[in-house]
Amino acid sequence: MASRTGRTSEAQPWHPQMTRRLAVQAGAVGLLGLGIEHLGALRAMGGPATPKGRDDRAVIYIFLSGGLSQLDSFDLKPDAPAEIRGEFRPIATRTPGLSICEHLPKLAERSGLWSLVRSLTHSSNDHSAGHHIMLSGRSDLPSGFDPTKPRPSDWPSIASIAGALCPPRNNLPPAVVLPEKLIHSTGRAIPGQFGGEMGAKHDPWFIEASPFDPTAYGAYPTYEFDHQQRPPAGAKTKRFQTPSLGLPEGFSESRLAGRLGLLATLDRQRSALENSAAAGGFDDERQGAVSLLTDRKVKQAFDVLHAPDAVLDRYGRHTFGWSLLMAKRLVEAGVKLVQVNLGNNETWDNHGNIFPHLKDKLFPPTDQAVSALLDDLNASGLLDSTLVVMAGEFGRTPKISRLAEFYKLPGRDHWGPAQSVLLAGGGVQGGRVIGSTDKIGGYPRSDPHPPENFAATIYNALGLPSNVSWRDPQDRPHFVYHGEPISALM
């Protein structure tokens, strides 16, 4: 693949080479983590808008941290014993012969837009290892893997590879992650979501739109919950903060050279900022930062909380809805890969109370927001060029379990051997089911696919050729593909 520098498929990945010392701040959150120097490089390298075609391909990777139960969502086993099948019943979709959970009615209505892989499989039942596996697309753990923290020897995340090998468009980085990093309840960052052996400079850009709270789960504020149903300690504090791009009142060149903060009245100061930059008051990199901060298209992409009421009603006024609406707008603005973490702090880790939590707290906002995303992408014509995938780090155990000391009701434990993955758009034909599991939903019965094939499907959807690689500081090539795209989807 030709890169921005004209190199072949073994090209050094493109990314601005600079520190994060000068981070552009948007209120309490960093604007994609970009420093002023990053922005200058992005503008200089970005060039004119890319014509429609190969370079308008994009991916939205919806990640369900904690692990979605395949048996209670997309691979129900109604004829299995009660301790396997659980409480939910299947409903028919628009696709003949395809049934999914009764609590996903909107997705059932739209089955012509998506397909399922019911036989994605890997060998780990550990959260940290599972995150690393599914976020990097590598089944084998790297030497020295530490489940308690990210390490420089970790495999690079799919988002990091996309950020390195896809050229930027419209002043935006090629890959972003939102609405927050994946943080364990203990406060540690979960490995697998960073640049790893590519180096920290290739960490994806994180839009951290919510403060960390170890006790809050789900699609807050509407569907916030606690896994163990403990009494609330006080008023809910979890909130969603979308960036309001701009500079503080009374800004100066010295302040701009430091950290830029929140401006509630950006529109009122827009012309003053532009005039200051045009007058030569800032160097080239700082002018680039001001240009991005005053770009109406970029501001609109992030300002999801003030979207029209009809749009918010469709997506939902909760973090799942706001996050997927932002993902859609970022793809429209030119971002190539958006990873959306639907649920912080291993939200989908339902060791107990699984049926009420899925029915009342997790499925309603997911069904609503994902359906709205597919509708909008389909109506705008972007679904043809945008692959939407939804997966977690693993599935859940076939047999229902009970941890009475922590949970009032039963749940399911971790299960790497089988999970169901939803895919739509980007060339995927709707209404298909790839692979199957055995009668208890525990192991693939046909057409098993490892995470390497899942990752290859994403890279293929981004237009990356099968021989593409990146080179480390010692000029050694590291190939991106470790499996084959799932051809039966196309």
UniProtKB/TrEMBL annotation:
Coiled coil: none annotated. It holds the Pfam family DUF1501. It comes from the Bacteria. PANTHER family: BLL7424 PROTEIN (PTHR43737), DUF1501 DOMAIN-CONTAINING PROTEIN (PTHR43737:SF1). This is DUF1501 domain-containing protein.
